[in-house]
Amino acid sequence: MAKAGFATIIGRPNVGKSTLMNTLIGQKIAITSYKPQTTRNQIRTVYTEERGQIVFLDTPGLHAAKDRLGRYMLKAAESTLKEVDVILWLAEPKLPKEEDRAVMKLLAGVKTPVILCITKTDTVKKVELLPVIDAFARDYKEVTGGDPAAVIPISARTKQGIDDLKEALFSELPEGTPFYDSDTVTTQTEREIAAEIIREKALRLLQEEVPHGIAVQINRMHTRPGKNGEVCDIDADIICERESHKGIIIGAGGSMLKKIGMTARTDIENMIQTKVNLKLFVKVRRDWKDDDKALKAYGYNEKDLNGR
Ligand SMILES: Nc1nc2c(ncn2[C@@H]2O[C@H](COP(=O)(O)OP(=O)(O)OP(=O)(O)O)[C@@H](O)[C@H]2O)c(=O)[nH]1
Ligand SMILES: [Mg+2]
Predict the structure, then answer these.
(1) Are residues 21 and 100 in the same domain?
(2) pLDDT tier at 161, thresholds 50, 70, 90
(3) Which of 14, 94, 155, 200 best tests ligand 1's pocket when mutated (most atoms within 8 Å of CB)?
(4) Ligand 1 atom index nearest CA of 33
(5) In this structure, are 112 and 45 located in the same domain?
(6) Which residues have C-beta within 8 Å of that of residue 267, sequence separation ≥ 6?
(7) How far is the CA of 235 from the centre of ligand 2 (A)?
(8) Coil vs helix vs strand at 66
(9) Domain span including residue 19
């Protein structure tokens, strides 16, 4: 009988969780960027092959939350730990720091098996990697009193170790029938992915605190017949925290907003395989990251969080 189960991907911000999930499923669903705290929600994807089905949960990086949004993000990650069949914990190929030991303390409280992935191995030499693996194994034992189910060095960039990781994942999953159709790749809606794509471009193009204060809301997404095939009209708001941020997002003569719109449009067109007419508006909503109603409106609703 084939295997079927849930795997959550956790770790510090920016370690490469979303990149790894995209690599595992062979498709870009979760947005990624070189800035920490890119992912804000649970992103569910589905990987199906002969051995069975793995439902992946990509989660926000584990960090010290400063506002309601931050606490929501932490909950989105931590609430998955007890609900899944296996925890995929990602760490950088550097000797464990206090932040890594904080993750170990969190893991000490759950019975779910843990696969520790030392990722970005393309950035270090092999001789540097072995002491890192040893140190993680030793600290893990010290903090949790147990051992990880497996320790696997990988690189999402070169795909090294990905097959070993899949093997380790399947060996932790129970036998069972698949949860989703074999052609399901994600449970995210096209609207949700479109909003995330716009936020990704803002994260990549804007500097410092501006992109971290942004939320994206799709107000309209509607496909109609055009002159040369179908056209999808999308109206979206980019919400920011300050009037000064609004100016930066719009840019001189509207140049920044145009750049965000153009790059987002190309990605959305590739996703839905339809020509897109994207209109972006910038709005200021002060302190939305601490406003319960605003958080819910922008898709950060605690009620929607569950591990499976
Ligand atoms: N060299 C190298 N870079 C990587 C690898 N995996 C991810 N990255 C880079 O690391 C950065 C962060 O990647 P993300 O996938 O967005 O990280 P994340 O853990 O999801 O980050 P948050 O959502 O903010 O918690 C990006 O610049 C990636 O290109 C890897 O295997 N090798
Ligand atoms: Mg991420």
Answers:
(1) yes
(2) very high
(3) 14
(4) 16
(5) yes
(6) 197, 200, 201
(7) 25
(8) coil
(9) 3-172
